[in-house]
Amino acid sequence: MSSEDPLSSDLIPAPLRDALRLSPDNAPLLLHIAETVLKLGGFSEAETLFKRALALSPDNLTAKLGLASAFYHLGKRSAALVIVEAITPADTAPATALVLHARLALQAGETRFAARLYQRARTATPPLTDPSLEEELAPHLSAAPAPARPSAKPPAPLNEISASPPEESWRGTSDNDADDAGRERLPAGDLPDDIAPGELERPSISFADVGGMDHVKEEVRMKIILPLQQPDLFKAYGKKAGGGILMYGPPGCGKTFLARATAGEVKAGFLAIGINDVLDMWIGQSEKNLHALFEQARANRPCVLFFDEVDALGANRTDLLKSGGRQLINQFLSELDGVTASNEGVLILAATNAPWHLDPAFRRPGRFDRILFVPPPDLPARASILRLLLKGKPVEPIDFDALAKKTDGYSGADLQAVVETAVEAKLREAMKSGGLKPLGNRDLLDAAKRHKPTVRDWFETSRNYALYANQSGLYDDILEYLKLKK
């Protein structure tokens, strides 16, 4: 049964269903039916009904908490969090919202913050306890003072939250973030379930772990590594550390891995940004998310700020029908320009499989002023990648050069798949024989025959752009790789 038509649910008593059909814009009736369905476990139907109620009565707190509860039970933690984090800062936040927020925080590993929220729920008016949650938080409750919150209007009650939703990623909040008064935001549809923005990494890998890609490595060195290692020399020429590099090419060729290795090379922070870390359904919120990520990178210099699938955030504005996307692109360009703060010490790396969809303004000098083609690895690079992939595994003497010749056109991801296929075959043999058997040339060659290169489709598409939409010469590297350049 689809949540698009909750009235078809058997969970709704026939009299209530008939009443709602006669009065579809009756917000109190919608709320009553939604709460009834929620108690009976019809979470998808309840989600749709609560959204309808909120469309009629946007400030109804009962409907907001009902929707948060439905999201929670459906495993949509991020969507539930958006609602409760705007409610729980209030001193008079309802206990049900506090318990739900505590569960979300606990599942994200924020145990002390969860304990403080639950402590507030136990002393709220009316109070609410959750035995299973209390048992998990017991070691932290005695030392968990309830944080003060600004006053707000008294809320309406809602059902208790008890069952745990399916496991998935959660957008964590620090204790300081949780103390900030949130905006009144209400989702009109599903939010991404795996948002985890602003997680600063300290990668341990370096360029030594990256096979091939020497040209790209050299450009990155000139942009951030050497200016940090020899600041006086670069300062004499007025050259600052930082800037933007756009990497494009077929998927699976190591663009993301190289970005992470760049940070590890200079012991810099690393922020990997996906589209779900930026895009938000609320007008203006995506731009704020983007600005906050740039600010975090600036506060942790030297820092590598990496945008994967950047064409999704910087699509060509001539292709956009709505103004919301245009505003995000304008904000992105402003951040790259460092209009409000300097980007010195911040290396902005971006990767895309479809550079032809990126707005031309991003290619202006001072933004992504280095645009690098990342092709599938050449023969020496393939041999190097295979050595790295087989490091630490039981192997016979391997002729890496011969193996590299047999894998022409394979991406780094393809080579990893070849190794994994060979390993799985050896594992099956080992389980049958009861003894460890090393990988040999024949195992890897057999695996290579079974795995076909995955980059051919990309080159079919990119070839057309390189031949017929290449007035600026941007795609000359593709033509050169395909041996089509005159």
Describe the structure.
This protein has 486 residues and is mostly helical. It has 3 domains: 6-148, Tetratricopeptide repeat domain (Serine Threonine Protein Phosphatase 5, Tetratricopeptide repeat, Alpha Horseshoe); 207-373, 3-Layer(aba) Sandwich (Rossmann fold), CATH 3.40.50.300; 379-450, Orthogonal Bundle (Helicase, Ruva Protein, domain 3), CATH 1.10.8.60. Helices cover 47% and strands 6% of the residues. The chain has 20 helices and 5 strands. The protein has helices spanning 14-22, 27-39, 43-56, 61-73, 77-84, 95-107, 111-122, 131-141, 175-179, 214-229, 231-236, 255-265, 285-299, 323-337, 379-390, 400-405, 412-433, 441-450, 456-468, 476-481, and strands at 243-248, 269-273, 303-307, 346-352, 368-373. Strands 2-3-4-1-5 form a 5-stranded parallel beta sheet, with helices on both faces. Strand 3, helix 14 and strand 4 form a beta-alpha-beta unit. Helix 4 (61-73) packs antiparallel against helix 5. The longest helix has 22 residues, at 412-433. The radius of gyration is 27 Å and the shape is globular. It starts with 13 loop residues before the first helix and ends in a 5-residue tail after the last helix.
Ordered list of secondary-structure elements with their pairings:
Elements: H1 14-22, H2 27-39, H3 43-56, H4 61-73, H5 77-84, H6 95-107, H7 111-122, H8 131-141, H9 175-179, H10 214-229, H11 231-236, E1 243-248, H12 255-265, E2 269-273, H13 285-299, E3 303-307, H14 323-337, E4 346-352, E5 368-373, H15 379-390, H16 400-405, H17 412-433, H18 441-450, H19 456-468, H20 476-481
Parallel strand pairs: 1-4, 1-5, 2-3, 3-4
Helix pairs in contact: 2-3, 2-4, 3-4, 4-5, 5-6, 6-7, 7-8, 13-14, 15-17, 17-18
